[in-house]
Amino acid sequence: MPNSPNYESTAAEARSAYPLKPTKRRSEWFYLKKNAELLMLLTPGALLVLIFSYLPMFGTVLAFKDYRYDKGFWGSDWVGFDNFKFFFISDNAWLVTRNTVGYGLLYMILTTVIGLFFAILMNELGKKWLRIHQTAMFIPYCLSWVVVSYLALAMLDSSNGYLNRILETLGLETHMWYLESKPWPYILVSAYLWKNIGFSTLVYFAGIMGINQEYYEAAKIDGASRWQMATRITLPMLSTLIVVLLILAIGHIFVGDFGLHYFLPNENGMTFPTTDIIDTYVYRALRVHGDIGMSTAIGLYQSAVGLVLVVVANTVVRKVSEENSLF
């Protein structure tokens, strides 16, 4: 019986015959030069975040001070948590917090559901109609809330508004929209969806475009319906994208859309019970009362709660499905 081969000696002979060349550890400068173009593309966004997100963080110290212009940034008296107490004991604290969280949840849920619905519908369109629908849905997103507020004024003006004229034609009672608070939750939600649903739809549609089309072809061969392909292929394949966007949206629940809630109701006090949010409340406190300390405290409160919500939501998602978590 022949002897079994000696693998150790064979490997040693191979290493001696073909010695491995020692590899030099490439310096960090090499990788910087290699990715110079990508770093140049990153620079504007990094500077934007640095200037508007990180440098202003030094100003959070004003949340714990009674800021006075004559004493300056560092010389103002330290008051601890008094600025936070002033907000929480005020009559409007519960109202603006309720409105901010309620609208944030509505915007997040409706934008996700309707955006997914339209993205799935757009996936069934031909290229010609697809471009038309993409452009038509995305145009409102490019408009500022100032422009949208004038469009809303043309619709809701009590004397010459189109909506009141339509109600008169139908024999229904007209309304003084800017002096009533009850209709504004419907108006604000409708305006938000009209402006932002196009962007959300395009994000989910881009995710659908990244799905391997072989899945749909195999499903068609097996006789699957459009509904089955949407629920069994599209939604499961988009689950990671949906979860990541929801986690990011949860962090903004305590940060309302200032432009929407400030410009559309025209800052009319009669609508405050259903339109006032933390952001508009802080702006009025800073503009009318000049209370920089309280305004900074409320802004810090929003950021802290948003951070906690993102971390908690991501932790829950990671325990359920680690691959769908954000970090």
Automatic annotation (TrEMBL):
The keyword Protein biosynthesis does not apply. It comes from the Bacteria. The chain crosses the membrane at residues 38-64, 104-123, 135-156, 186-212, 233-255, 298-317. Residues 97-313 form the ABC transmembrane type-1 domain. It is found in: Cell membrane. This is ABC transporter permease. It is a multi-pass membrane protein. Its main location: membrane. It comes from Cohnella yongneupensis. The lineage of its organism: Bacteria, Bacillati, Bacillota, Bacilli, Bacillales. Gene3D superfamilies: MetI-like. Keywords: Cell membrane, Membrane, Transmembrane, Transmembrane helix, Transport. Belongs to the binding-protein-dependent transport system permease family.
